[in-house]
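STRUCTURE:
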């Protein structure tokens, strides 16, 4: 009988926090600066330099902990994690091992209609390392320390996930929650959210864990899903051949869809952790905790319930709108200004998402204002422009955030609603197309579509299609 295997997965998720300055110095955290320009003696590990903790890092860590149902460690401290690598300028990293700021949390995920909790073992604060750039032309490796000292939280899950779908659902839940909190933009492509996958396999029914490996270099949800599938197959193959799975760190190559060993897996002993002597312990008193709790925004689950009740929009629409805090903010502000939640939802779900995909953008980078979308919805509702023109105007709003009222006026795009003018144009179209008129009379009702199209063309798209259909019907029926 063929053996069946179960995959056991836990994640270590690193999230760069959205502070303006680094965790222990006042250097900028902005992404994309020229190499080694966002640096100082502290974040380049110069002798004699001393770290000073950024208070905002602690507040973001608390906020994420509260939102993921963690216990907050009110007395916590930093530790030194010693390792020697070119992108680690001090030859140690300031992290938290013994008293991490958050512990014993969980988030609820839903996959194929089934809900489950994924446990969070801990969340700890730490500093990021620099970045190695391998120059193939010069056959050398360069180091950029701009990222060194950027504040991170590391979210360590329990090994509660069993497949790629659960992993992606967990990561999406974390990303949405952290974005709503404003703690990070969580852009995988820029490295502000990174996931390392710890994976092992065991026979179905076994309560003992198999030997796990850790996979790095995963910068998209698709790469994570492929890496899980690839590593599961590799481990099962080894077991079936009677070989042992080695506990090690592996690097995933998404182009080749293959992982290869980087180093044998270290444990805490290898890093020679000890309390960080240059930083005092952190005491989070009850008042500080209350202030952070009071500042927590409405999260996605609460918004979903409120949108269905308050705005009476379908759950599927609410799910799309609330996926991003940016989209939810635009929706609420636009609805407040124009008074029509359903039309606002339609513009966001339809045209906005279409243009986001076409431009290969992140929803967080949408730059148009709710005021201009609300104005567009109002002038369409008044019949000043038709839906065809409205889509053209919206593209300009999306690209350049133009004022739709001024744009329509300047471009002469207002709908022609004068019945006399419309009748005159339609009568001319009918006279010029006797064959279509005859087809219509012979029961080919589709012929009216051609005549409507010709009328809209003659009116340069500025006629109201409903009015055109009405007048055209009247003229055809009178022929």
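SEQUENCE:
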């Amino acid at each position: 009988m063929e053996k069946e295997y179960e995959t056991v997965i836990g994640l270590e998720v690193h999230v760069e926090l959205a502070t303006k300055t680094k965790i222990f110095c006042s250097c900028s955290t902005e992404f994309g600066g020229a190499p080694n320009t966002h640096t100082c003696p502290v974040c380049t590990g110069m002798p004699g330099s001393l770290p000073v903790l950024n208070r905002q890092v602690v507040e973001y860590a608390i906020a994420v902990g509260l939102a993921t149902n963690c216990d907050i460690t009110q007395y916590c401290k930093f530790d030194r994690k010693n390792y020697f690598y070119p992108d680690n300028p001090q030859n140690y990293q300031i992290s938290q091992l013994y008293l991490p700021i958050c512990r014993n949390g969980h988030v609820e995920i839903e996959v194929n209609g089934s809900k489950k909790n994924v446990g969070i073992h801990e969340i700890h604060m730490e500093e990021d390392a620099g970045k190695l750039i391998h120059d193939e032309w010069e056959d050398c490796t360069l180091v950029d320390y701009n990222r060194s000292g950027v504040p991170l939280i590391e979210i360590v899950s329990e090994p509660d996930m069993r497949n790629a779908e659960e992993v992606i659902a967990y990561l999406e839940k974390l990303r949405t929650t952290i974005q709503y909190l404003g703690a990070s933009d969580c852009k995988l492509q820029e490295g502000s959210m990174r996931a390392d996958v710890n994976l092992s396999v065991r026979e179905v029914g076994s309560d003992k864990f198999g030997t796990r490996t850790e996979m790095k270099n995963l910068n998209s949800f698709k790469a994570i899903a492929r890496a899980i599938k690839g590593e599961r197959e590799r481990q099962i193959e080894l077991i079936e051949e009677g070989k042992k799975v080695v506990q090690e760190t592996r690097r995933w190559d998404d182009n080749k869809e293959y992982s290869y060993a980087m180093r044998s897996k270290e444990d805490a002993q290898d890093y020679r952790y000890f309390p960080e002597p240059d930083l005092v312990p952190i005491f989070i008193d009850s008042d500080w905790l209350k202030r952070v709790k009071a500042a927590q925004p409405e999260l996605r689950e609460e918004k979903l319930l409120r949108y269905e009740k308050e705005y009476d929009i379908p759950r599927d629409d609410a799910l799309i709108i609330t996926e991003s805090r940016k989209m939810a903010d635009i929706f609420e502000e636009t609805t407040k200004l124009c008074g029509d939640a359903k039309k606002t939802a339609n513009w966001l779900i339809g045209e906005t998402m279409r243009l986001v995909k076409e431009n290969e953008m992140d929803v967080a980078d949408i730059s148009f204002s709710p005021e201009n979308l609300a104005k567009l919805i109002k002038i369409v509702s008044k019949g000043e422009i038709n839906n065809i023109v409205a889509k053209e105007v919206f593209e300009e709003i999306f690209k350049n955030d133009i004022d739709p009222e001024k744009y329509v006026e300047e471009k002469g795009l207002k709908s022609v609603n004068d019945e006399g003018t419309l009748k005159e144009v339609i009568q001319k179209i009918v006279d010029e197309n006797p064959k279509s008129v005859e087809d219509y009379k012979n029961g080919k009702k589709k012929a009216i579509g051609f005549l409507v199209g010709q009328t809209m063309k003659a009116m340069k798209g500025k006629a109201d299609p409903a009015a055109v259909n009405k007048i055209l019907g009247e003229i055809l029926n009178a022929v």
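REMARK: The chain has 15 helices and 16 strands.
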